[in-house]
What does this fold into?
Amino acid sequence: MRELLFAATLFLIPLSTRADELLPTKEETTWEYNATETITGSAPTNTVVTVRVGKQVLDDKEVVKLETFSGKALSETELVTQDEKGIVCLARIGNDGKVVKLNPPERIIAMPLRVGAAWENVGEVEGIKLQKPCTVMAEENVTVPAGSFRAFHLHAEDLSLISVRFDRWFVPGTGFVKETTSVKGPGMLHRRTLELKKITTSETGKPTAEHSESSPSASPAGSAKKLTVEVASDPAGGMKTEFRSDVAHIYVRWFGHDLPENARIRVAWVADDVGDLVEPNFIIDETETIAPVPNATARFTLARPPDGWAEGKYRLEFYVNDILTETVKVTIK
It folds into this structure.
């Protein structure tokens, strides 16, 4: 029985968000990156790359326009859309303003986003068409100037004519937080690294992101509500506190409300009373996430051990910068 309790600790991992949460699309949202480029025979150069969200009509439908600036110069414009299948690039706009539709559209992110998933249509890397599959290599902790993130590591490479490799780290609800590209040929090597510095909107001048409303849970009296949380057996959300011992998954979500900059959100899965398996208030596992924006969100899943859950009383504790903010009591029977 003790194994039933501890097996759950292996599965407290971020869960892919819904398609409408994959990428912030509020107009004027910007991502600012520190960029470093190295070319054979030249000293490394450092610039600032900014990606800005706009809107544009394509085929009578409004789509998201992503403008990329290197310094102050516009270097790329992409028209993208996202749905339950992921994110795709529909067209690009040249410096002459001409819209070039992509047939077929290029897949940027494919859902469901999970380790081992792969898709074609990688697109362009440093102006070179890359047709090899993009593979989700792992879920990793990655630290950049904007903070620490739990990200999906995407990788693609083409070794046919010249060596082209790219790695990107994607956080659902935030976007790409890091990217490295390498183009290698006879006597030539070009490397580029982008690391997220901040994500902002022009309206507030502060990091921001869209979030969904959810059912309230207990919050310490007299404190400003920084988190709204959900615990459910349905991946779509909701609130439930009693589960059968054979339930496949328990889905946990939190929604931030005006969080401090780079707030540390820690979630603890605690055994309140599971009989003689462990002592009361035993911390089974913990996970910590750095909130990149004041209204950040995250989802996690607790997966059922092979022989079922240990019956008893549990609780989920949610901390903001080590201050207990929300507590949800859970019963498994």
